Amino acid sequence: MAQGALAEEPFEGMTLTFAEESTITAVYQVRRVLAHERSSLQEIAILELENWGKALVLDGVIQFTQRDEFFYHESLVHPAMMAHPNPRRVLVIGGGDGGVAREALRYPTVEEVTVVEVDGRVVELCRQHMPEFASSFDDPRVRLIIGNGRSFLEEQAGSYDVILLDSNDPLAELARRLFDPVFFRLCAEHLTDEGMLALHLSESLFREGYLGYEAPMVRGALSQLFRYVETIPMPYSTYPCNWWSFMVCSKGLDPRVVRNPHPFRGRYYDPAYHAWLFAPAAFIERLEMLKGTF
Fold first, then answer.
1. Which of the given ranges, 1-15, 66-80, 203-217, has the highest pLDDT on average?
2. Residue 123, domain extent
3. What's the domain count of the chain?
4. In 3D, which of 53, 2, 7 has the Cα closest to residue 27?
5. pLDDT, tens digit, for every residue of 182-201?
6. In the 8-state DSSP scheme, what is residue 190?
7. Is 274 annotated as a binding residue?
8. Which residues form the PABS domain (predicted)?
9. How are strands ordered across the β-sheet holding 160-166?
10. N or C, where is the chain less crowded by C-beta within 10 Å?
11. Does 148 belong to an annotated binding site?
12. Rounded to an integer, what distance in angstroms lies between the CA atom of residue 176 and that of residue 97?
């Protein structure tokens, strides 16, 4: 798991910095520390960064910043929502900041968005310091549950049109049980026949442990459950090596096809190039062969 650290409180004239250490080390200048605490589950910080605006940081890892969050949230939500002909019930696992719910609520067909977030302090701090995201929880269509996403699926009946997995980094200990075959089977069982599952896959190219095990395992497990398992790469300035990827899965409908009659055009996502988002997938699937060649 990538680690990050805030420098000690600076002396007069010095600059406070935050460093995230992963396959590379990125150092950010900090204007203000809006929140910094350890909950019962993880370290949480909300920082105001020079050039990037407010940032949510969990266990030393940047989840998103104000300046580039639309790449992540739009790439996770809209390909799945646009591929479904009539998304009414949406389940978000994670998503305690409210950004994924915000995007799902843009569709007039949506009747309910259930958000299951394991750490209630993330929700509380984002409500206080990031209302531009967390205000989505005030929408009457949103049902917020503080609890374990896996346990929720094990204990609840019912099905969803779209399930969106907005967890921590797959290498983070807190998220590991959301990236195994048993959990993926639970997701498949709770999807309608036309349902879509979308999840993020971390950086697939430069992180040896992830490339060597988790990415092929995730793809293989999903392929046992879904007819379509499609990959979307995405640029992201504040993620390690500026490269990230997602998967969109379906038991019956090709996610590469737009079916939603209410097109959404965002800052990054556009239905006009929906199919193009999936075009580099063959490269993603060849990444295993690149291991050890550079």
1. 66-80
2. 69-290
3. 2
4. 7
5. 899 999 999 999 999 999 87
6. T
7. no
8. 14-251
9. 142-146, 112-117, 89-94, 160-166, 191-200, 243-250, 228-235
10. C
11. yes
12. 20
